[in-house]
Amino acid sequence: MALVLVLAGALWVLGIVLGTPARLRWGMIACLWAGIVGLHLILPEGHPLRLATGASAAPWLLLGGFAALGLGYARILHWLRGRSAQRTAKPQQLGSFSEAELERYARHIVLREVGGPGQKKLKEARVLVIGAGGLGSPALMYLAAAGVGTIGVIDDDVVDASNLHRQVIHPDAAIGLPKVQSAAAAIAAQNPHVTVRPYHCRLTQEIAADLFADYDIILEGLDNFETRYLANRTAAALGLPLVSGALSQWEGQVSIFDPARGTPCYECIFEHAPDAALAPSCAEAGVMGALPGVIGAMLAGETIKLITGAGTPLRGEMLIYDALHADARKFKLTPRADCRVCGSKE
């Protein structure tokens, strides 16, 4: 038996020297094994060849059985590894994500409500953010971090030192720069996989419709009522959802105005702009520095939900957050039939 094993080893080494593929080498050894078993089955007991190769076929049959089990186990293991590799590679094909993107968005992708399809929707989404101030700053940062593929930001202001306690997207070195330029640089540094479109200008009636038409969702965090009403009218006319936020001192509000899907628009709820004395600006009334971060992050969260279809967005509802007393309230909003923007035209 030892002689046969030596012969098998010699065949294996010879195959390596000659560059024979492993499969053929195993084939030669299998032929040798089959020949030995055949000799034991054909030749009579006591034959010299049988005596030279172990006298009985039983050891060779056991050896062949163990070899078959080992080979079968190896094949199954190889198949399982192949299946595992396919499952691992599948998310990469989705949305043409790079390895870096898959690693960056891994915590999103494992969320049942988002998953690979939701992350693909985020990558393909286009969101316009009006204002790169207190609310726009955190909203922009979280939209970029979430992987929203195209982010527009429009603002005609420049960074001032008084902005820095709450407008966290702007560093001290950006003082004097246009806010959209500072925001675009911060987004590019945070997530190079996102496309940023900065518009250093004021939103006006002349450009609003053409600008909004390039986007899927409009997010506004304005402190100017004239511009807010313009954004509402334009979004409603184009059938785009308007994710809206506002704040003053210690209190903020978040809502989604989407009359194309049966909810009220901003003007349904606030038919007229309040008197300036009743709605002072942050410069006049002040604002707690962390409050825009809370409300701006909520705006980004609602936008992500709209894009991915996750959960229940604040369509037709308004959430009021009171930071001073750590209280939050939510109200149902009802469309007005006589609204000048989205009401019945009959």
Low-pLDDT sequence parts: 88-94
Envelope shape: elongated
Q: Could you tell me the strand content as a percent range?
A: 5-15%
Order of the strands making up the biggest sheet: 3-2-1-4-5-6-7-8
**Count of beta strands:** 8
Number of helices: 14
Which class of secondary structure composition applies to the elements? Answer: alpha/beta
| Largest sheet features | 8 strands, mixed
What percent of residues adopt helix (DSSP H or I)? 40-55%
* Mean pLDDT, all residues: 85
Computed Rg: 35 Å
| SSE arrangement, N to C | HHHHHHHEHEHEHEHEEHHHEE
First CA to last CA: what distance? 101 Å
Structure overview:
By secondary structure, the chain is an alpha/beta fold. Helices cover 49% and strands 13% of the residues. It has 14 helices and 8 strands. It has helices at residues 2-18, 22-42, 48-52, 58-93, 99-104, 106-109, 115-124, 136-146, 179-190, 205-212, 225-238, 266-269, 282-285, 291-308; strands at 126-130, 150-154, 195-199, 217-220, 242-248, 251-257, 317-322, 327-332. Strands 3-2-1-4-5-6-7-8 form an 8-stranded mixed sheet, sandwiched between helices. Helix 10 (205-212) crosses helix 11 (225-238). It is elongated and about 115 Å long. The termini are far apart.
Q: Main traits of this protein?
A:
single chain, 346 residues, 8-stranded mixed β-sheet, 14 helices, elongated
Short characterization:
The chain is of the alpha/beta class and 346 residues long.
